[in-house]
Write a structure and sequence with these properties.
alpha/beta; seven-stranded parallel sheet; 7 helices; 47% helix; globular; SDR_oxidoreductase
Length: 281
């Protein structure tokens, strides 16, 4: 099989940076992107092409960037939507603008970037679109509601998209990692502000302390995680012969969280089943 071409957003750190290294090590080609292309200039030494791309740009601008990216190697086979950040804060205190900014990157920017590449993928009747989600899409946390909601939104958008693209021959993969040792919690947008409202003070202080203590002590190994994702996309190693997963949890904490939520949902369905059905005509 000839080398595949991957375009990866948000490659200046974390999962994105590791994706570049792993994909090149597998013999494929990479177009690494970031808002500030100078932050990823060193990736050219690894063999990657680099491209400035801000997922919050207009659809017209993203469409132009897609054409520019495709012209580098003549095609893009795999799009990895990795760019994102974490917005902390109590919902009553977070403003509309803060929520919009969170969704503009994690949801709208991701979908607009995907939309820019879909005509190309459709023309080839092949390709993979990867979305880096989070286990918090399954079970929301206090004082980080905007982030949880954004990851839940992209989960269900990706589910719908998969049903639209499957008949064409394009696959989608929503990856839902647990806590991994990336720079996500170090980003400027990840400040753990304590609530100014007394009623929320205790919980916001506890959440801020938990995240600060947790930062750098997350159980997930980023290198292993990216290796597993690439295994699935390429159908290699331990993923060989396995059915394609529409959703891929990564990390023991993600598996535990998602299983617990599913079991709780099934218990509640059973307890309220007759009550719920009683509303039928």
């Amino acid at each position: 099989m000839p080398p595949q071409v991957w375009l990866i957003t948000g490659t200046s750190s974390g999962f994105g940076s590791q994706f570049v290294k792993e994909v090149i090590a597998r013999g494929d080609k990479v177009i690494a992107t970031a808002r500030n292309v100078e932050r990823i200039s060193h990736m050219r030494d690894l063999g990657a092409a680099t491209l400035q791309l801000d997922v919050t740009a207009s659809q017209d601008e993203l469409n132009r960037k897609a054409k520019e990216a495709i012209s580098i190697y003549g095609r893009v086979d795999i799009l990895v939507n990795n760019a994102g950040y974490t917005q902390f804060g109590i919902i009553e205190e977070n403003s509309h603008d803060q929520w919009f900014t969170q969704f503009n990157t994690n949801v709208f920017g991701t979908l607009n970037t995907t939309r820019a590449f879909l005509p190309h993928l459709r023309s080839n009747k092949a390709g993979v679109v990867v979305f880096i989600g989070s286990m918090v899409a399954w079970d929301g946390l206090p004082a980080v509601g905007a982030y949880c909601a954004s990851k839940a939104a992209i989960h269900y958008a990706a589910e719908s998209l998969s049903k639209e693209l499957e008949p064409i021959g394009i696959k989608t993969l929503i990856v839902e990692p647990g806590a991994f040792r990336t720079e996500l919690l170090n980003q400027a947008g990840s400040s753990r502000a304590v609530s100014k409202i007394e009623d929320y003070r205790v919980i916001s202080e506890a959440v801020a302390k938990n995240f600060d203590d947790f930062n750098g002590n997350q159980p997930g190994n980023t290198v292993k995680s990216v290796q597993r994702i690439v295994d699935v996309v390429k159908g290699e190693k331990e993923a060989t012969g396995k059915p394609w997963p529409s959703s891929l949890p990564l990390g023991s904490d993600a598996v535990c969280t998602i299983r617990k939520k599913c079991e709780q949902t099934l218990r509640e369905l059973e307890a309220w089943e007759d009550f719920a059905k009683s509303t039928d005509i």
